[in-house]
Amino acid sequence: MRVLGIETSCDDTGVAVYDGDRGLLVHRLYSQIKIHEQYGGVVPELAARDHIRKLLPMVRAVMQEARTERGDVDGIAYTAGPGLVGALLVGAALGRSLAWSWDIPALGVHHMEGHLLAPMLESQPPKFPFIALLVSGGHTLLVDVDGLGQYRIMGESRDDAVGEAFDKAAKLLGLGYPGGPAIAAAAEQGDPQRFRFPRPMTDRPGLDFSFSGLKTFTRNTVLAHTLDRQMLADIAYAFQDAAVDTLVIKCRRALRQSSRERLVVAGGVGANQMLRQRLRHMVEPLGAHVFYPRPELCTDNAAMIAYVGYRRLLAGERDSLQIKVRARWSLATLKPVGGGE
Ligand code: KG4
Ligand code: ZN
After folding, report:
1. CA within 20 to 30 Å of 265's CA: 125, 132, 139, 315, which one?
2. What digits encode the pLDDT tens for the residues 179-196?
3. Residues 54 and 146 in one domain
């Protein structure tokens, strides 16, 4: 079975072709960063309009590159949520309509299930069950994953997502968008001894997160000092140190509580090198292992959407002709997929 995948939930236009026998054939991404960076964040209306411009030509180019004719495509998967409604609608409308005109099934896919299963596209995928840390611009989730579609939320952010906190901290420091890579780069010159920022909600039991206090602490520190190059690097370091530590502490707790031996990390913040290094050190004494998708599959992409679509379409799931997207959509409401792995 060959599936065309479409991702337009935020500021990246993604198209991919996944084949059940041959794996991922091609995936391409067009980033809208240039459009949004002057505003310091994603402007939903501009995102939707650019998806309209880019998507159809990308579908044509990716199919050509994958040597895939329309008759070779057995199903179309598009991101149906969560995300920006206008942006989602572009992918959903095109995906649903193409499937109708080609007389093949279509399926709306959950964006976070895509992130969660992205490591399955690698040569040594994790086996079920595992704990997943999903860290992106919109989500901070710890999920207990028993099998495909069997997700129990163990903890989540009560306010800002960790990626959002990186983006806001970067803005306070006058760094570019997206903030994660900008903070990480600035922090390389930072003095680890200069500041120690709080690790929110780590002093009490539970696996929920909160990052808005860390943002306020960052703002107050910025306001209390003259922001020269070194000061900026020191604050970036302290912020990253605290955000990463908070994630690592909660992951350790989740592994211990569940006795799981595998941790999957996915979503844009999963590209952070300090996070990767500290997670590696944390899991070693527990005898556990960490799995990441390759960096390009950590951030938004259509390969993960095509893969989830493949697994669910193969199991017989189909959407009606209605074009439906959801801004909010809980992972916990998804249906288990037959056949386990
Ligand atoms: O998963 P993603 O590409 O898009 C969403 O679905 O949100 O994640 C984007 C987020 C942004 O907030 C960005 O600042 C953050 O991931 N990010 C990073 C790094 N690279 C991207 N955060 C920390 N360190 C990084 N190296
Ligand atoms: Zn994402």
Report:
1. 315
2. 999 999 999 999 999 999
3. no
